[in-house]
Amino acid sequence: MKELVEVMAKSLVNDPSAVVVEEETTGTTTVLRLHVASEDMGKVIGKQGRIAKAIRTVMKAVATRENVKVIVEII
Question: Per the record's keyword annotation, is RNA-binding included, yes or no (predicted)?
Answer without folding.
Answer: yes
